[in-house]
Design brief:
By secondary structure, the protein is of the alpha/beta class. The chain folds into two domains: 23-101 and 199-304, Rossmann fold (3-Layer(aba) Sandwich); 113-192, no CATH class. Helix content is 33%, strand content 24%. It is built from 13 helices and 13 strands. The chain has helices spanning 68-76, 102-108, 120-123, 130-141, 147-160, 166-169, 179-190, 209-226, 237-243, 261-266, 271-278, 320-324, 346-355, and strands spanning 6-7, 24-37, 40-53, 57-61, 83-92, 95-96, 113-116, 197-201, 229-234, 246-251, 254-260, 329-333, 339-342. It has a nine-stranded mixed sheet, with helices on both faces. Strands 3-2-5-6 form a four-stranded antiparallel sheet. Helix 5 (147-160) packs across helix 7. The radius of gyration is 21 Å and the shape is globular.
Length: 356
């Protein structure tokens, strides 16, 4: 039976009251990030809103250029010029952090919210030992901690992220670690202050399948032990199926569908989500031939006025309503298993899915 469909209304500003287990640890409201280019203003994040609860694992998926990484950087205040967060709010543990200055935000970044990037070699200092870099992350947020205590904690973190012979590898340099081990070090640095939220931006993309599985298992264990909430940014839907509980599908800077993992894989509502799933091999479905998504994402400097996916959409291409009218977000199912989609045909597609 289908629950009542309704247009999703954005929540009021999150309350500043004492947080409960069910309260969001992270709330993003109407976030908008722009980059100034010669061709015009590129809107990389367009009015994005979502909530994340403690110990929840949420994936942000989409093609390259959809705005996933820009969203992660916008949340933690690391957007470099010529980019700028021009509107919206980010709340962490009931406190708005999007209005904080660089110094105050820098104290929160790493202690309450951390980010792991795709290429650890670009994030690790090649002339500093692994141990020194972890110690640096620890004492940044605990400046009164003595060096010996910080070293012991750094070795403990290396063990926690399953670096073999952790004490002996403490003095090694980044080039002496494999790619998978360097990624483990980045996770150790991100977890040095036991943050409430971890944003992982394509952390397994450059790794082989076996190492990918090891990193995912490690992240899962750390979430269980520390109750850390994870925003997992990726284009790899196989990783999403293994690791995440909920999926937010991003296209041209917008979140166009959000759903629990199982429901999204079984019955995608937005045509873009369906196209993404048809373009990758899936163990639960036998497909004779994978289907590439035709066309290209729109330039972020000139997104179509209606549905941004309309030029590529097999369902809506050429239809006046899709070309001219921006779809609203329909909440197709409420509660913890909420399904929300921005598509003019979301209602019909949901009803068809529910009937099968």
């Amino acid at each position: 039976m289908i629950s009542g469909l309704r247009v999703r209304r954005r929540d009021d500003t999150p309350r500043r009251a004492e947080s409960r287990v069910s309260d969001p640890v992270l709330s993003v409201r109407d976030l908008r990030t722009e980059f100034t280019a010669r061709e015009g203003v590129a809107v990389a994040v367009r009015d994005v809103s979502f909530d994340l609860r403690r110990a929840e694992k949420v994936a942000i998926v989409g093609e390259s250029g959809s705005g996933k990484s820009a969203l992660g950087l916008s949340i933690v205040g690391l957007v470099d010029k010529p980019g700028k967060v021009v509107a919206g709010q980010v709340w962490l543990n009931g406190r708005e952090i999007s209005r904080l200055g660089d110094r105050e935000l820098g104290r929160i970044r790493g202690s309450e919210i951390s980010m792991v990037f795709q290429d650890p070699m670009k994030s690790l200092d090649p002339v500093k030992t692994i141990g020194d870099q972890i110690v640096e992350a620890i004492v940044t947020h605990e400046p009164t901690l003595k060096r010996a205590a910080a070293r012991r904690r750094a070795v403990s973190l290396l063990r926690e992220v399953e670096i073999p012979f952790a004490e002996g590898r403490y003095g090694d340099y980044p080039h002496q670690y494999s790619g998978g081990m360097r990624q483990r070090v980045m996770i150790a640095i991100a977890l040095a202050s036991n943050p409430d939220v971890l944003i992982a931006d394509e952390p397994t993309t450059a790794l082989d399948v076996t190492t990918q599985a090891q990193i995912l298992a490690l992240l899962g264990k750390l979430v269980e032990q520390h109750h850390t909430a994870v925003v997992f940014i990726t284009h790899n839907l196989g990783v999403v199926a293994q690791f995440c509980e909920r999926v937010e599908v991003m296209y041209a800077g917008r979140l166009v569908e959000r759903s629990p993992v199982g429901k999204l894989f079984e019955h995608p509502i937005h045509p873009y989500t369906e196209a993404l799933l048809n373009a990758v091999p899936r163990p639960d479905r036998r497909i004779e031939r994978l289907q590439a998504i035709g066309g290209f994402p729109p330039p972020l400097t000139s997104v179509p006025p209606g549905c941004s996916f309309e030029p590529r959409c097999p369902l809506g291409h050429g239809r006046a309503i899709c070309r001219d009218a921006k779809p609203v977000a329909l909440e197709l199912q409420g509660g913890e298993g909420a399904v929300i989609a921005e598509c003019h045909f979301a209602r019909d597609r949901w009803q068809t899915a529910a009937a099968t």
